[in-house]
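Notes from hallway chat w/ T.B., transcribed later so I don't forget. T.B. wanted the structure written out for a chain they're using in a teaching module, and asked if we could keep both sequence and structure tokens in one place. Agreed to drop them here.
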Amino acid sequence: MLAMLVMGNAFAYATVADQEPQKEKKAYHFGKFLDNWYFSAGVGAMTFNGNHGIEGSYGSRIAPTFNFQLGKWVTPVVGVRANFNWMKAKSYTLDPNNGNVDGQKGEGVYKTKFPFMSFMGEVTFDLINLFKGYQPGKVYSLLPYGGVGVVRSAGDPKKNNIGFSFGIDNRFRVSEAWSLNLDLRFNMFHECMDGTAPTGDWDQDFTSGILVGASYYFKKRGFDQCKVSEAEMENVRQQLVAMNAENQNLRNQLDEEKNKPVKVREITKKEVMVSDMGVFFPINKYKLTKKERVNLGFYAEMIKKAPDKKFVITGYCDKQTGSVEYNEKLSQKRAETVYNTLVDEFGVNKDQLIMDHKGGVDYMFYDAANLSRVTIVKMDESYGNQTEEKIVEE
């Protein structure tokens, strides 16, 4: 119930945040594999909730517990970790022959006690970073998590089974390297773990409790902001649009000059030239934004005016992010997206288009990795370069 209350407050906070004026969200690099690791340890109290736990009070089943965690933040919002949890579980049984019996509570009811542990792989989420943007210096972090792993009863008989974990980890920043933790933890598993149901269909037992502890964050800590903002990228796009408009204006002026009457016999040579086009993508994406789709539509009309020309579509990624294999596939998908949009949406002749991709590359523009996440369309001057001769007379 406490976990649901905290989650409800978090989503209410997010709703209010959505109603406030939104600032531009900044992009951050994922960092290297060894960045943003941490180690946590905690102690607390948990209860084992089995089939016959109701034979005793809730308080009589509270037992000390401790846990250890090794984790990494993959992005400012998503992290992964391994969690080990141990307790000396207390419960009750109606079976006097249960190997975990540790005394008698009353007629036909027996106390049980046995070592119980879990090893879980978990995914954590930073809700405040999700809704408000990355805040490396914030004091409080709200981290819901979920995971799956193995649970083990080391009593008599010994049991191993699959288990699931859920909870909310509340973290309070003390310094750049340390935080204090308040963990509301819930583990769910098969009923056979306390020795009361060795066979049968799946029926969930669970442990629930609260732990306090501390976390130490190894260097390097935090995420580096990308050097080029979305506003700067938009400025580059607008410059490309302006250059295309200027080229179109020059072509119009050239057409007007050709239509003027001449008093002498002359020969003009006409050659269509189309400038290059850059289509930019957000990090780790290959779908077009609406702005880029509009720019691509203007460019498609210029391609149609040069039916004898071929155009090379080349996809790129920045090699600062992602593996070589991943960047090869992503750059190919970016090139395919531009190709399919030109052909299927804007009606460009597919025989005029050639696809290529280069994978991850160094900085292409302004020493900024963000501007290497691009697909460039360039006219191949080796095709259709024949000039057209035309005799113009008075």
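Follow-up for T.B.: Confidence is low (pLDDT under 50) at residues 12-22. Might be a good example for the class.
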